[in-house]
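In response to reviewer comment 3 from the previous cycle, which asked for concrete evidence that the modeling workflow produces usable outputs, we include below a single protein chain processed end to end. The sequence was submitted unchanged, and the resulting C-alpha cells are shown without manual editing.
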Amino acid sequence: MSLSVPSNAGVPHSTLAKYREKFLSSSKNLLAQNGCTTQNLLDMCKSRNSIQAINHTFDLKIENEGKPITDQKFSGRCWIFACLNIMRVPFMKQYKMEEFEFSQAYLFYWDKIERANYLLDSFIDCARKGETYEGRLIHHLLKNPLEDGGQWDMLVNLIEKYGVMPKACFPESWCAENSNRLGRLLNNRLREFCMQLCQLVEKGTGEVEIQSEKTVMMEEVYRIMNIVLGTPPEKFTFEYTDTDKKYQSFKDLSPLQFYKDYIKGVIFDTEEYVCVVNDPRPQNSYNKLYTVEYLGNMSGGRKVLYINQPVDVLKQLTIKCISENKPVWFGCDVGKSFCSKEGLLDLKCLDFTLVFDVDPLKMNKSERLMYGESLMTHAMVFTGVGTEQDGNPGHVKATKWRVENSWGDKDGSKGYILMTDEWFTEFVYEVVVPKSLLSEDMQRILDQEPVVLPAWDPMGALA
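The workflow returned the following C-alpha cells.
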C-alpha cells in the first residue's frame, strides 16, 4: 500500500489560486483582515446602531429585584443560581431583607452526590439491557457524566429532599466557584465506576454484591465533595437586621425544615412550577408532554418533563408572570448574537455579513436544533418586559426583555441584560411558570404519558 499523498488530493491548487486572487482584489476583505488580525473578532462585528439603541427601561417589571447581583464565577451552576434568584425575591419581601442570597454551593453539593448515584444506577440498567461502550447511548452518557448544568425538575428533586439555606451559613468554596478541576476528577472516578459495574453485570454478579460495590463507590464521591466544598451543617442559625432596623433570626433549623416552614408553606413551592418549552421540530408536536431518556439527577425522583408549545405561548406566560410580580426562570442559547460587555442579546448586534459576507442566522430554529447549531446552554431570570398593544383588546406583545444574569455586576446594566423580542423567538427554549397560570387545556397535557426522546436529543441539553 502506497503511503504517498496523491497529487490530486484535497482542494485543487488551481481553485485555491482563484480564491486567493479574488480575496486579495477586494479592499473590503483587506480592511476586515487588518481589523480581525489585531482585534477581537466579535468586537469587529459589533453593530454601533444596535448598541447605541440599548435602553434599559421597561413598562412591566417586578417590584423588587434581588440584591446583590450574583456571580457563579468559573462554574456551570447557572441553573441553580437562576432558581435561587427567583426564590429570593418573595423571600426578601416576606422577611423584610435589603440583600440576601441562598447558598448555591449547598444545592451544588447535593446535586453532585445525587447525580453520581443516578448515573451509576443508569449504567447498571444499561448493562442489563446489553448496552456496550460501542453504542451511542453509553458514549453519550460518558461524554461528561457529572457536568455542572441541570434542568428545572432536577432542582425540584434537590430542594424537596434537602431544602435550602442562607449563603452565609454555607458559603462558596474555591472548587464551587472554579469547578473545572473538580469536574475532571469526578468524571474520571465515575467512568471507572461505570466500567466496573458493567463488568460485574456481564459476569452475572448478584444484585446484593453489585449494590455493595456501588455503596463503596458513592462513599468515595461523598468524601471528595466534602473535601472540596465542606460539609453542610445539619442545622443552622441565621440572624439579620430587617428593613425596619429590627433584629430577626431563623434559629436551629435544618435546611429542609427552613424550606418547608418558611418558604414552601408561605411564599414559593417548587413543585407547583412546570417547564414549558418551544421545540419547533416537525417531528415533535405542540400540546404534547415530553421527557428525555436517562435525563435526571435523582434515582426515583421527579422526571424532567416538558410541555411543548409555540414560542408566543412562552412569551405570554412570561408576561403574565411578570405582571403578577413573579420573576421567571428560563433556558436559552446564550452564546448566539450576544454582546456580553454591553449586555445585549440582539439578532442584529453582531454584523457578520458586513465583515465576512456570511449570515449565521439563515437556518431557522427547528433546523438549528436538528443540525447541531443550537441548544439550551444557559439559565437566567426574566424580571421585566417592554410591551405594546398588538391590536387585540387587553392583549399586549413584547418588544424587549429585562434579564437578570449570574455573571456579576461588571457587564451590561450592572449585571442585567437587554434581550430583544426577536432574540427570544430564536434562542429561548424554555420557561418555568406556576402551573396555575396555564390554561385548563395546557394543564391537562401534564396528565399525558410523556413522549420519550433519546438521551442525546438536544432537548436534553443542560443549562
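The chain is about 40% helix and 15% strand. We consider this sufficient to address the reviewer's concern, and the full set will be provided in the supplementary archive.
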